[in-house]
């Protein structure tokens, strides 16, 4: 398929998990890929994987909590590929704890990566896209931001904040040809989920009408839809990819 032929896509947190799945799906649809992630070695290895499959890819060391590094990620994309058509704010961490135990540092760390990082990315992407008169920004929220989950007051707050950011940015940028949408995944089999206790995973599975978690590619396909012209009349929307959980 060639849904993103000739376009450049930036994916934060793209070295593994859902981010790498989105990058791979976009590349298979013709996009040139820019991966921004913390660890230069892992990010470079992911870019090499894409290149070995015949795609164009660039690895950039980027901590999304840093204004300077997010801006540099955008600069690197423009210098190498000349344009930014798609930007996915995907980088993420968890620091789960109940209110009784959660520290201010744990709260701030999660809000800084998810909410501030998505804002920095949205701002950087929109500067390039408004000049080009087109672009699609995809923000990765979570079902935790819709319903609130125990032990995740930091994560739920940040992921709900991403919904507000998405809608406000969508309204600001619509007349410039730039669309901004979000995805709320449920349980997706990545390192983030594999780190959970087995009884916690089992409790989550019991809530899912489809009876299983998602493969990262199942989120990536929805991101492809939002990144491409298939969703040309959609902006400010939040799509749930949860197997029917918490509908
Ligand atoms: N896995 C799930 O079930 C699930 C569910 C809902 C939402 N999400 C969201 O999907 C996104 C991807 O999660 P995943 O499951 O692939 O996790 P993952 O842990 O497999 O990958 C996250 C990536 O983000 C990178 N990252 C972390 N902090 C960063 C920072 N400051 N700057 C740049 N990169 C950073 C990590 O290095 C890693 O490569 C996250 O936003 C997560 O909150 C995941």
From TrEMBL:
SUPFAM superfamilies: NAD(P)-binding Rossmann-fold domains. It holds the Pfam family adh_short_C2. Coiled coil: none annotated. InterPro entries: KR_dom, NAD(P)-bd_dom_sf, Sc_DH/Rdtase_CS, SDR_fam. GO terms for biological process: fatty acid elongation. Belongs to the short-chain dehydrogenases/reductases (SDR) family. This is 3-oxoacyl-[acyl-carrier protein] reductase. It comes from Rhodococcus triatomae.
